[in-house]
């Protein structure tokens, strides 16, 4: 069985990077006689717009990407995420956090802090023992308790694509690595009561995704998703990360950095054939 998904966020217009991911995923699905789902990742209500969402459908149709069922819209699934969050609350694995970005920066630059790196903002655990109520606060996963609960030090998944440092095959991450890289990460934001990590984990399970095909900028957050799958008793899919399409200067294409949109390429006469050939597909 091969079930995959394309999961754009309607925070801007799709560019060549999205086209690559969508077409590559569709090729994989076709080759494996599988199913392709479309998921609109629109939990970030301040940045997503209905116009961008409509344009996603138009661009994908124009590119010849076909999905197999009604698209899942994350904004319609919020109660399901809250349910999953509740399971983690009931297991006693989360805590409320009051810290702002600048509180975290301050704590990280304190002279007695060993992880003295302000840029990475690894959460130093300031609120871990405070027992703050969860309402109206960011909710973080307590990694130490999680490790004890899962009775393992390791997170494992299978990579059938390639990570940013050529990772491929069976992957094992130490939970201590997660602590060092992220600290106790946020699984529910105070405004939307979920996070990208929780929503993506729940939805990959809901949509019965067997193979996650996506850009390898998400490779190093995969252990976060796998830890949540383990806690929520979801099966871990196979991951197929692909390299990112870069601009002339070797930077990742980004809406925020003005990457040319598929819509504008189309309006200025670029054909689908040309797009496929630029992407090497
Ligand atoms: N919504 C994410 C994006 O647009 C993709 C998330 C995923 O594929 O897991 O980059």
Can you describe what's shown?
- The protein is α/β, with parallel strands linked by helices.
- Helix content is 36%, strand content 16%.
- It contains ten helices and ten strands.
- The chain has helices spanning 16-31, 50-63, 78-90, 101-109, 143-150, 175-181, 196-206, 222-231, 262-267, 272-279; strands at 3-6, 35-40, 72-73, 94-97, 138-141, 154-159, 169-174, 186-188, 211-215, 238-242.
- Helix 7 (196-206) crosses helix 8.
- The longest helix is centred in the N-terminal third of the chain and has 16 residues, at 16-31.
- The model is unreliable at 114-118 (pLDDT under 50).
- Glutamic acid binds at residues 7-9, 41, 200, 214, 218.
List keywords for this structure.
alpha/beta; 10 helices; 16% strand; globular; 3-stranded parallel sheet; 3-stranded antiparallel sheet; 281 residues; binds glutamic acid
Please give the radius of gyration in angstroms.
20 Å
Question: End-to-end distance, in Å?
Answer: 24 Å
Largest sheet: 3 strands, parallel
* Average pLDDT for all residues: 93
Shape: globular
Oligomerization status of the protein chains: single chain
Specify the structural class. Answer: alpha/beta
Q: Cofactors and ligands present? A: glutamic acid
Order of helices and strands: EHEHEHEHEHEEHEHEHEHH
The count of β-strands is 10
In DSSP terms (H or I, runs of 4 or more residues), the helix count works out at: 10
Tell me the fraction of residues in β-strands, as a range.
15-25%
- List unreliable stretches of 5+ residues: 114-118
């Amino acid at each position: 069985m091969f079930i995959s998904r394309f999961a754009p966020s309607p925070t801007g217009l799709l560019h060549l990077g999205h086209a690559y991911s969508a077409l590559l995923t569709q090729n994989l699905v076709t080759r494996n006689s599988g199913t392709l789902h479309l998921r609109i990742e629109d939990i970030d209500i301040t940045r997503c717009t209905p116009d961008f969402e409509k344009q996603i459908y138009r661009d994908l149709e124009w590119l010849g990407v076909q999905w197999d069922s009604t698209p899942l819209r994350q904004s319609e699934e919020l109660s399901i995420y809250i349910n999953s969050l509740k399971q983690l609350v009931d297991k006693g694995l989360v805590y409320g956090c009051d810290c702002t970005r600048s509180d975290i920066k301050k704590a990280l630059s304190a002279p007695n802090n060993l992880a003295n790196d302000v840029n990475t903002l690894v959460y130093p655990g300031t609120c871990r023992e405070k027992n703050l109520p969860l309402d109206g606060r960011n909710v973080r996963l307590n990694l130490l308790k999680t490790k004890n609960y899962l009775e393992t030090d390791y997170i494992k998944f299978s990579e059938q694509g390639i990570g940013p440092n050529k990772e491929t095959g069976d992957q094992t991450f130490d939970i201590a690595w997660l602590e060092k890289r992220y600290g106790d990460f946020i699984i529910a934001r105070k405004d939307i009561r979920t996070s990208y990590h929780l929503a993506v984990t729940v939805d990959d399970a809901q949509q019965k995704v067997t193979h996650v095909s996506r850009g390898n900028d998400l490779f190093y957050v995969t252990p976060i998703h796998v830890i949540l799958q383990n806690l929520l008793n979801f099966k871990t899919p196979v991951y197929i990360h692909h390299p990112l399409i870069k601009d002339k200067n070797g930077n990742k294409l980004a809406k925020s950095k003005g990457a040319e949109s598929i819509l504008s390429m189309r309006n200025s006469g670029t054909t689908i054939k040309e797009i496929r050939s630029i992407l090497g597909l």
